[in-house]
Amino acid sequence: MIALIAEKPSVAKDIARIIGATQRNDGYLSGNGYMVTWAFGHLIQLAMPEAYGVANFRRESLPILPPDFRLIPRQVKAEKGYKADPGVLKQLKVIKEVFDRCDKIIVATDAGREGELIHRYIYNYLGCTKPFVRLWISSLTDRAIREGMDNLQPGERYDNLYLSAKSRSEADWLIGINATQALSVAAGQGVFSLGRVQTPTLVMICSRYLENKNFVPAKFWQLKAATASGEISFTAQSTAKWEQQPEAIAALQRVKDAGQLAVKSVERKETSQEPPLLYDLTTLQKEANTKLNFSADKTLSIVQSLYEKKVMSYPRTGSRYISEDVFDEMPERVAMLGQYPRFAGYAAGLDGAALNRRSVNDGKVTDHHALIVTENLPGELSKDERAVYELVAGRMLEAFSGRCVKDVTTAVLSAGDTDFTVKGAVMKEAGWRAVFGERETGGDEEAASLPPLQEGECLPLSGVDLLEKQTKPKPLHTESSLLAAMENAGKELEDAGLKASLKDAGIGTPATRAAIIETLFTRQYIVREKKNLVPTDKGLAVYRIVKDKKIADVGMTGMWETALSKIEAGNMDADTFRKGIEVYAAQITAELLSVQLSVAGSETCPCPKCGSGRILFYPKVAKCSNVDCTLTIFRNKCDKQLSDKQIVELVTKRKTGLIKGFKGKNGKAFDASLVLDEQFNVAFSFPEKKGKPKK
């Protein structure tokens, strides 16, 4: 018997159908010599500090550096703290039974770093020693699954990928836990989450916001002249910019006095634009944010859905290239798009043509090739799914199309010792730009076309205007520009040596950047204002503390990403990386324990139990600041989240007003007040029922 484990039930069912495992069982499918089971993403996680006998949020406990990390089932929020997710425990039991009954395992979790970690953590937690092989595919089409099953890879081939994933997981724990607890202890109130990638990303958003907010615009002036040749009128802008208005007015008068414009030079040249490369995940997320106003997280969710519907290749890719063998299939994919209404006409025109090879490079394909559509024509899609599908399908047609060729004319005109420039372009071959029919946007000085001009020719001056302008700050980050900044973090560094070493390193990976941005929203560090990302007061307070600290060092974070890639390639020892992270975690802990942090608007009140501490408010609990006091109030009470205001009322008055919307074990809603009893436990107080006879 052979076991197969997939990352989620839907994928397991697809594979099971192909290999003939069609009998349904509780938590797995069986048949034809196979038992097919599944995870629900990460079933296993690293244990929290209390599992190592360490008290949380105590200065003397930091830094927390476990000698060996323990694996535990995924936790869920409970009335008091956290407990193992019952659904996870049930599925882990099923997986163990499946593994125990089989001779070998086929690993079919997603073919990437996190997919490998999902399987290995389960495998190690269960203490399994059965041999395993790897199904490594880039789409979920029937053909891809069959080909993958015919070419299963040795499991040990991906040992370094696992070590890289494990190193990433442990580094995030060491830095996130220690930095968060250190800053929170220093603040003395609330929890201030920090992280290996999260914090440098917050710094990018805040620094851009403050740069924009504090920018002082400077005025300058330019001239704009209107003229004509034959039947064609056009305008040209002065090359000079004047910082003083009187100088600009004097130049304006000299141009008026001249009364005409002389053609000083004319340059004509043919320019060609190569088509864009195919999408990787980050480039698609940037485009979807700009064109569709989708968040990075929403785009990832949609493209994952398209992948599971077998119409899109593996989404979490960092490559914009395809290999030669995949390129061989492209004429078939282009022909398939001839049946898709939006692209039918264009795809038909490419049929039989030599396809552009710019996106073909075996050496630049990593674990997965660029995002492309599969051989399956999509059926019913939601509006958002169709929009993303068409972005990818359209980009695929663009990438394999010919160059866009234009004739560009640049003319310099002169009047009264002031030069004016104008640029015009005439499309000769639309090439790849014809896919969406998009025109390239030009600046104020660019005309669609210019009349034929000759050097030395004189043109009439039909008018000249003085334009008052002002310098502009860099715009606030959108998700699109932030993704670009994360991807190209190394380019922003001032140190030339470090910049060179991080030339191709960003922070985060295509698979994790969306989650990092969403984490900043969840932590209430940033908000959206239209498309812009704007820091909150809490986000700015954290930024001011950490901006010069090691935790915010983009260069350091970029070097870690490079190190993780080296571990994956077998060029770095994972233990060496771990030791470096531990040293770093100790350094940032010492730095952060010494800071002072204040955020306006926080609730505060004395502890009624010990009298010496004050109540600190955390996302999931409120507790006394005195570490020896046991007063703890959990926010979640019968499926109702208590607000700071309700907790303050409970602590100060020992009873709240009537709170509506609690849910009983039977699922029915009820209303009640909360009271703090003699032992400082939280209990319910129910209102007297009206009309009830007194005994």
Distance between the termini: 71 Å
Structure classification: alpha+beta
CATH topology of the largest domain: Topoisomerase I, domain 2
Q: Can you say what the CATH homologous superfamily of the largest domain is?
A: Topoisomerase I, domain 2
Word description of this protein:
- Keywords: DNA-binding, Isomerase, Metal-binding, Topoisomerase.
- Residues 1-141 form the Toprim domain.
- Belongs to the type IA topoisomerase family.
- GO terms for molecular function: DNA binding; DNA topoisomerase type I (single strand cut, ATP-independent) activity; metal ion binding.
- This protein is an alpha+beta fold.
- The protein folds into 5 domains: 2-151, 3-Layer(aba) Sandwich (Rossmann fold), CATH 3.40.50; 171-213 and 476-594, Topoisomerase I, domain 2; 219-274 and 406-470, Distorted Sandwich (Topoisomerase I, domain 3); 281-299 and 307-400, Orthogonal Bundle (Topoisomerase I, domain 4), CATH 1.10.290.10; 615-685, no CATH class.
- It contains 20 helices and 29 strands.
- Strand 7 and strand 8 (82-84) form a beta hairpin.
- The N and C termini lie far apart (71 Å).
